[in-house]
């Protein structure tokens, strides 16, 4: 994007980032103000917490065999997208405020690409989770029969499309040669791109909400017709609790990101009276907080996940204190041994799985976990 040539008529390749900001009316201070220190400090702190929390989720899914199913692989990939968001926000904090003036156009586009790609990855993961739930819930199964190969291909496709969508402005959908159509919030993006991106994500949100609404109606109707057999009741509760968890994740995502997307769309439509810059930082903070929500939901909704978190943290504490045998691989072996023991006890006592009553353990129905 940065070129060492003269500007051609209508294009401004040799102008600085500050030039585009001043033209769009988004002035940036050359000196650090108290507000800048507060914003950057809070942003860095939240980003570090987001990164650590989602690493914890990914490790928990890896070491606990109860989570080795398509739905949890997709939830783990959602945690990876949130981890990516934390890294993108941390990178943003080191390239914002007065630092923005020093950025080259390439560096500015990299900053925006990271943010855009992380959001797209989260949206695509939620859509994939909705499709997976739609496939399984309508047959009252806990897990789909999707093979590991298909899950890997799906995850690879999600990241490929997310990266591509993040690179679209860099590849040409910018306003370097169309200065009159530069947006206010993203001064080197065309307004039309903001409208396209916001509408596409809002439409995807609407599809996911519609899908989950249809699933809830179906599950409620189906549960009323099920017999009162104990195993069926437990399976129904397990399925419904898992639906509640993924729906809470989707709901929090929509709540956190919709204001920012609406603001982007208003900016893209050229609404001068909307004062988008006044609300920009608040919407950005709200969107960033979403990456903290999912690990919290996992902890409160899934007893197995919470117990795995505790084992990981205790292992790290013991490793720091004693310094022997508490490696990740050793912890994984111990966890698998506990799972095997739990399953053997479950075969001897058919009705002793008390955690089926209040969390989303994948072993709610053993007949569904053999696939």
Automatic annotation (TrEMBL):
InterPro entries linked: GPCR_Rhodpsn, GPCR_Rhodpsn_7TM, LPA_rcpt, LPA_rcpt_EDG2
Keywords: Cell membrane, Disulfide bond, Endosome, G-protein coupled receptor, Glycoprotein, Membrane, Receptor, Transducer, Transmembrane, Transmembrane helix
Residues making up the signal peptide according to the UniProt record: none
Coiled coil: none
Keyword Methyltransferase annotated: no
Annotated PROSITE patterns: G_PROTEIN_RECEP_F1_1, G_PROTEIN_RECEP_F1_2
Main localisation: membrane
CDD domains the record matches: 7tmA_LPAR2_Edg4
UniProt membrane topology term: Multi-pass membrane protein
Listed Basic and acidic residues bias regions: 348-371
Region listing for Disordered, in residue ranges: 343-371
Localization: Cell membrane; Cell surface; Endosome
Transmembrane parts of this sequence: 37-64, 71-94, 114-131, 151-174, 194-219, 239-266
Boundaries of every G-protein coupled receptors family 1 profile domain copy: 53-298
Top-rank taxon: Eukaryota
Family: Belongs to the G-protein coupled receptor 1 family.
Protein name: Lysophosphatidic acid receptor 2 isoform X1
Name of the gene encoding the protein in the UniProt record: LOC106592905
